[in-house]
Amino acid sequence: MLNSVGLSFMLLLSAVGAAIVERVGYDYSKYHPMPEITSWMTQMEKDYPGVVSIVDYGKSYEGRTISLLKIGLNTGEKKKAIWMDCGIHAREWIAPAFCQYFVSQILQSYKTDTIMEQMMKDMDFYVTPVLNVDGYIYSWKDNTTRLWRKNRSPGPPGCDCYGTDLNRNFEANWGTIGVSFDCCSQTYCGTKPKSEPETQSVMNFLASRKDDFLCFLTIHSYSQLLLIPFGHPDFTATNYDELMTVGLGASDAIRKVHGMEYAVGTSPAILYPNSGSSRDWARMQGIPLSYTFELRDNGTFGFELPEDQIKPTCEEAYSGALHIITYAHDKTFNGAVVTAAATLWTVLLAVGVTGANLI
Amino acid sequence: MFPLWLRLYLSRDKSRTLRPKSLRVWKPIPAQHRSFCSHFLHYFLSHCPQNEVFSEEEGAEDVMATGELNPNHYPAQRAAKVVQHYLTTRYGSPYRLFGLQRVHSGNAEDVGDSGRKYQLEIAVHEIISNTTQKCSAEVFFPHGQKQESPQVQASCEELLNISTKAQEEALYQQYKMNQTLISAQNLPDSHGHIEPDTKPLWHLGIVASSFIMLKESNENTLYNMAQVANITQLATENDQLKFDCHTLLHDMVSQEILHWKLLFTWSPAEGVKVLQMEQLPHCHHCEKPPNTN
């Protein structure tokens, strides 16, 4: 009898032990403060060894590390890549929430979805969950700081205000339109292009790798838009048609999820002109598919999107992003094969016709 | 189904390079002028009107678009947002709020030097009942030296069809009988949350704020609510509930957060009436980190 009691007790202990050891799942339907996002990144690297690695690629003004998750199935070769960054504007909390969701989704789906598995083999995903770390942390401080937008560098000498708008600080027609030189303004573009350490981090990281990147997606809120380069009304991207077509395809994909409308166009057409944006800079580096995502909503809640809308917003945005990423991948990896086949058939037909004429 | 690369290859524009160009005005291609390739694109692109392919017309001298407007572009969108604010001031209540669902079509013309008139067909969303309806509206933006509020005329199908009388009356009586005057802060809070019993206060704050957003709007602004920082009930006067409110407005174009203080009244019979409104200067030095020694 003692043996059976002992056995039951052992079974009970192991069950309890298993329950404690089993990790509590990360809640992707909640907004997370920076320390939680940082430990989530560490956890992702632990949970997916060889697939996920943290790359520290810069420092914020206040000295915090700016990190990204590099995700891909390691083939040992130099790979093509996809860039995604979130939280360049501190108050746009839905954006970092989306980056975290995106990471969890691709890691979940590649095990069962052969298309995603192939994409992970062919490309690496570089995802920065929070680019403007200082600003994001500041926006969590209290009720009066929630609507902070810029970074936290002090203004130029004599200035009473803090912060530069990082999305006006990139070296892309810097300081020409849609900016303010008033350091207290929300669109203050800085003392010069690339003046901010956060901007430098991105520009320095991508500059040496720009030929690898197929796609640059920068995530913002709100307005429900997909914006294509360029922010300056006098400049058109050489692949404007492609950007529009792929963007419209992404918008269709978004609509299919929850019926939400995301308009597509250049910033000067559908929103306002601007200069010095990361999207424009990326396009100028030659990264062909460069998009700004403006997520939900349309102004009812604005920056303070309720947490019950996080999941649906992420689901639709994921669909849109995946459309663009899949296009970029297929164009690079399958497109060549199709073009070659078409050329071969054309040549064969030409030979066949010429041959018939000769006879 | 033709692969995307083939469609794009056929419709590629070989003439465009990264070069400065005159400002383009986008107009829809009439069906009879569409090339084979753009028919292609039309067929495969979405059926929804706003995804129609628009052609470009070179040489538009006007910086501001005139004539038929692209409903997705900012001039029509900004004018339509003004209609939303107007409808909210006229018909808004704790149980009736409006959002802009979609712009179907728009037209703009200069009225001499005095200003610019927009004619719009829009879909308006009543948020609380989750119903949508069509409206025709006209917005006139005066071009004076200083900010003048736009003038709006709108006619909607059946805007007041859903009766909110009973709920409004119940709320009115409840607040009128309050032993302690009700107040609330941070609507919504940082996480987008609003306590159910403070929702009517949030809605009242939105209606009252719409008076400011309407008054302050012009062709270079796009206002939305950011937050009701504080709303406090004051003693009832002349059967009107009275409120003091500190509201935060977001202007999309400048990205600024504007602070306003409002004194307003409400009753089911009279709706919201603003008694006083005052813009508050924003405290910049409050944003500096405290000195650490």
Automatic annotation (TrEMBL), chain A:
A GO-annotated cellular component: extracellular space
Molecular-function GO terms, alphabetical: metallocarboxypeptidase activity; zinc ion binding
Domain of life, source organism: Eukaryota
Pfam families: Peptidase_M14
Gene3D superfamilies assigned to the protein according to its UniProt record, in alphabetical order: Zn peptidases
Annotated InterPro entries: CARBOXYPEPT_ZN_1, CARBOXYPEPT_ZN_2, Peptidase_M14
Signal sequence residues: 1-18
Biological process terms in GO annotation: proteolysis
Active-site residues, Swiss-Prot/TrEMBL: E294
UniProt KW Hydrolase keyword: yes
Keyword Protease carried by entry: yes
Keywords: Carboxypeptidase, Hydrolase, Metal-binding, Metalloprotease, Protease, Signal, Zinc
CC cofactor: Zn(2+)
Annotated Peptidase M14 domain residues: 30-328
Coiled coil feature spans: none
UniProt record similarity statement: Belongs to the peptidase M14 family.
Protein name: Carboxypeptidase O
Naturally occurring in which organism (per UniProt): Acanthochromis polyacanthus (spiny chromis)
Lineage, uppermost ranks: Eukaryota, Metazoa, Chordata, Craniata, Vertebrata
UniProtKB/TrEMBL annotation, chain B:
Gene Ontology terms, MF aspect: metalloendopeptidase inhibitor activity
InterPro entries: CYSTATIN_LXN, Cystatin_sf, Latexin
Gene3D superfamilies, alphabetized: 3.10.450.10
Species whose genome carries this gene: Acanthochromis polyacanthus
Keyword Repeat found: yes
Name this protein carries in UniProt: Latexin
Pfam family of the protein (one): LXN
Family membership: Belongs to the protease inhibitor I47 (latexin) family.
Coiled-coil region(s): none
Keywords: Protease inhibitor, Repeat
Cystatin LXN-type domain location: 65-164, 183-288
An example Gene Ontology CC term for this record: extracellular space
